[in-house]
Amino acid sequence: MSNFPSPDDRVFAKRGRDEMRRWLSEKHFTHFVTLAFNEPEVGKMRMRQSLKHWDACANRALLGKRWRKKVDERLNWIAIPEKQQANPHWHVLMQILPDQFEEFEEREPYLGFEDVLSTLWRKIVPSGTVDVQLVESKGAHTYVTKQLNIPENFEDFVVFWEFFEL
């Protein structure tokens, strides 16, 4: 058995990527975040566990100690893996609502939310780096999906609700 995806797998992933681009283009994301490991071999499980931990910490920072109970107030995001075999990282499109910002700023007046996101990732992945940008163009959804035509990446994207523990 070959490690290369079959032509059918590649066609399916390309169609999936195109549909994902269409779906994402209809959403109103506010931030584009890149979470890099800066390690050559991380593995899918660690990538996913680190993302889950970061999500929990970011929601706690945003919503406070009782963040788990505030399901409808949690951060909305989609994370797409890239270069999982070498230089693995996540591209995350995130939606932060204005009232979420206001509540955070009231609780933490001296901290910028973007700085908090970066600090949290570096605590989870000490070798990691973070880039947080405002989504200012419609092209962000195209950029984050550029490698979704690779079947492995298409299978491994994560949406925030996958981490809900109700």
Written description of the protein model:
The structure is a single chain. With 166 residues, the chain is α+β, with helices and mostly antiparallel strands. It has a single domain (7-163), classed as Alpha-Beta Plaits (2-Layer Sandwich), CATH 3.30.70.1910. The chain is 43% helix and 17% strand. It has 6 helices and 5 strands. The chain has a 5-stranded antiparallel β-sheet. Strand 2 (76-82) and strand 3 (89-95) form a beta hairpin. Helix 2 packs antiparallel against helix 4 (113-124). The longest helix is centred in the N-terminal third of the chain and has 20 residues, at 44-63. It is globular, with a radius of gyration of 16 Å.
Please render the helix and strand layout as text.
Layout: H1 7-25, E1 31-36, H2 44-63, E2 76-82, E3 89-95, H3 98-107, H4 113-124, E4 129-134, H5 140-144, H6 151-156, E5 158-159
Antiparallel strand pairs: 1-3, 1-4, 2-3, 2-5
